[in-house]
Specification:
Strand content: 35-45%
Helix content: 10-25%
Number of helices: 2
Shape: globular
Number of strands: 9
Radius of gyration: 19 Å
Order of helices and strands: EHEHEEEEEEE
Distance between the termini: 48 Å
Structural class: mainly beta
Largest sheet: 7 strands, antiparallel
Mean pLDDT: 95
Amino acid sequence: TLIWYPSEVDVSIRPGWFYHTDQDNEVKNPEKLVDIYFSSVGRNSVLLLNIPPDTRGRIHENDIKSLVGMRRILDETFSENAASDARIISSVTRTGYDPHSILDSDPETCWMTKDGIVSATLEFNLAEKKTFDVALLQENILIGQRVEEFAIDIRDGSGWKEIASGTTIGYKRLLRFPEVTTTVVRLRIIRSRTSPALSSFGLYNSPIIK
């Protein structure tokens, strides 16, 4: 049985686990917190971010400023999925598992290959040229974690160009790469323990940090 098991990443917003006045100016900045988010939540884990109350029993202003900044960056990054209106061509699809279901925001719907087929491609034809530097993938963990290797390509003037690759997807996988602009994206499921089943796919553009 292929079962998805959650993992937890624990880290503090400050150098120490508890509050110390002399660490008020050592709070992790929003960019660092976003890096932690991508390397924890973005790698199929749950993030436990420790935020210690100060001597007043409140969250210190510096911690709040970093948290609000982190939230702003994440909200801006994931505000628009560049693949939301894409036309998808899949190399193989199991009956009843439309590939376009990976764009419908419903975690219980998914695209899946036929029995015994453990590799496949999904080609996303975007409505127009889109610019992005983040990709999101999610498996349908209700039926387990399956994918073992994948890659993402874009089509440019000389053909296909790989821009990102990975192994584990699980509940969520986020990948960052240098900004690209294209009209066609290809997802290659290179290896899977059994028929791959994806519930979500997205392409996003990070905000310019000022």
